[in-house]
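Quick illustration for those who missed Monday's session on complexes.
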Amino acid sequence: MRVRRTSGFTAAVLAVAVTGLSTAAISIAGSQAAIASTGPQAAAAAVPDPTTSTLRELARHTKLRVGTAVDTAALQSDTTYRTIVAQQFSSVTPENVMKWESVEAERGVYDFAAADTLVDFARAHGQKVRGHTLLWHNQLPAWLTSGTWTKAELRSILRAHIFAEAGHFRGRIWAWDVVNEAFNDDGTLRDTLWLRVIGPSYLADAFKWAHQADPKAILFYNDYNIEGINPKSDAVFDLVRSLRSAGVPVQGVGLQGHLGTQYDAPGDVLQNLRRFAALGVDTAITEADVRSVLPVDSAELQAQANGYSLMMESCLLVRSCVSYTVWGFTDKYQWVPGVFEGQGAAALYDENYVARPAYDALRRDLALAPTLGSRGQTP
Ligand code: XIL
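Prediction with XIL bound:
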């Protein structure tokens, strides 16, 4: 069994994480043995060399889509950035250009140009697209947040937006983050425009409308701090269970995966993914990054690799986990420093595109993953 590096996260958390992951490592090793018994040549064909292959090449045998959030301005202006997106990833998520303020800055006037460019890029490079996001409380246009709306008006605005956007991309989006970040950390519903004016029924409405607008897209609920089992992930679990039992088309749960080496890593990601799988939904790691307080030292970079790896290994071991997306792959354009003061170094590559230990950790994880014929519950 391979030895995990253990610097960085606190001892107590590591004990939990290592207990969980030692089972993971055994299962992965077991599946490799099974592959080897079918003949060394078959195994060699199925799993490329982890020291020289790209993430997407290594993920193919386990049917996992490895994705990145894409900054569409960088995609246009920076050749190295563009090359890495194409070579390393088999799925893309627009970092900003499908958000409400980007596509409908003026009421009823839609601009999908930037997002269309990314969807075309993905098609040209054999990549899936995760649509992000139809309904959120952030990055809303001013006309929407500064208006005074009745419940009926706001419902019809939301309905029109979802039909316009999901309808525009109909058939070209693999999975939609339909609702983003609707809960507080204590498991209560977040106080947003949507909750205040429409009430909790906005959640079911959003999924129903998205399904009508694009029946083939896999519809996700997406949130942060729901990687482990806690009051917030319990609330998401209850929501998804009750929506599904009422026939509402929620088909996936996205764990954003924004971790930091200064915090305890969740010890029970695997168990959490498994309980969501038992509800019959797909799961995904949708926005992985592991930040540190700057400047970083080598122990923090090892802890970062452990954080990325913890989420990857957990995902690989659960058949319902269909994709693992990083929220930007280079510090050159990464969102963390702009939002968390004094923090950064969160991506797989630094600002000069030098890969960090986390990148090799993910390559090894992928190479050791079970070879699967399919992932996910929805075809
Ligand atoms: C972030 C983008 O990365 C930034 O460029 C933007 O300024 C703010 O939003 N959770 C989400 C993402 O669901 O949409 C956020 O993206 C990061 C947190």
